[in-house]
Amino acid sequence: MSLAFYHVDAFTSRPFSGNPAAVCLLEASADADWMKSVAAEMQLSETAFVVPLEGGFGLRWFTPVAEVDLCGHATLASAHVLWESGRLPRDAAARFQTRSGWLTATRDGEWIALDLPAQTVVAGPIPAEAVLATGLAPVMTGFSGAKWVIEATSEQAVRELRPDLDRLRGLPGRALMVTAAASPGSGCDFVSRYFAPWVGVDEDPVTGSAHCALGPFWAGRLGRDTLTAFQASPRGGWLRVQTAGDRVRLSGQAVTVVAGAWVA
Asked: What is the Cα–Cα distance from 167 to 264, expressed in whole angstroms?
């Protein structure tokens, strides 16, 4: 089998920053075990598989060890590849059938806007061992679905965080989001980090799906529905977030780093 693949850095305008995703363009649906093997070979936080469908494209996302229900950065990367490769007119919306329903991406100048389902953050206790693994004194803890959320005291605390990943991995978890209001002059409204060692991603560089929850959370806190976010991982990445009821408009940029053919 020969197929086109692309290595794209998402939520950035510069190579070697943002969140890298592999995008594989298929001519027909592929076996899930084969896709898992490709994702394990790629060893990126997400590998996206795109296949033409009536009315749009099918899209599935895999970490190196598991399929996931929603991935923002690999969706953004997939839309970028469809436009850049000429498989979709640059003025046409990219529509994807996914495990999270139909998702749409549109161009907004140099930015790509994703229409994604909003998620909620519910305040409540999370496992004490998870908090201890971060060394933080939380302002708040809570959940977004199966994912834990910790609000830290400051942007500096988020940036300096070095969690005990082995300790986290020993707990029955899915992912941990740590967030805080941005410091004055940071150029953004809030910052975050995202850790998911349970699915083979110790730290995700920039996590679109997390902002489906963090966007509404901070919109409520700050009293505004349009926000700028920075994910303060070592690679770092910028996002624009606009909340509208049960949807989130999530915008970012993308750049292709490698294009090639997969032969297997």
From this structure: 38
Residue 122, amino acid: V
Containing structural domain, residue 158: 122-245
pLDDT tens for residues 2-31? 689 999 999 999 999 999 999 999 999 999
Task: Tell me the HSE value of 94 on the side-chain side, using a 13 A CA sphere.
Answer: 32
Could you say which of 41, 46, 67, 203 is catalytic?
Answer: 46
Q: What is the pLDDT of residues 27-48, one digit of tens each?
A: 999 999 999 999 999 999 899 9
Which tokens is 235 given? 């690679």
What DSSP assignment string belongs to 87-149? Answer: SS-TTSPEEEEETTEEEEEEEETTEEEEEEE----EE----HHHHHHHT---SEEEEETTEEE
Is residue 238 domain-shared with residue 137, that is, in the same domain?
A: yes
- Among this protein's residues, is 84 annotated catalytic? no
Give backbone dihedrals phi and psi of 82, rounded to 5 degrees, phi first: -60, -40
Q: At which residue do the structure tokens 């009536």 appear?
A: 54
**CB-based contacts of 165, cutoff 8 Å, min separation 6:** 133, 195, 197, 202
* Shared-domain flag, residues 95 and 143: no
CATH of the domain at 255: 3.10.310.10
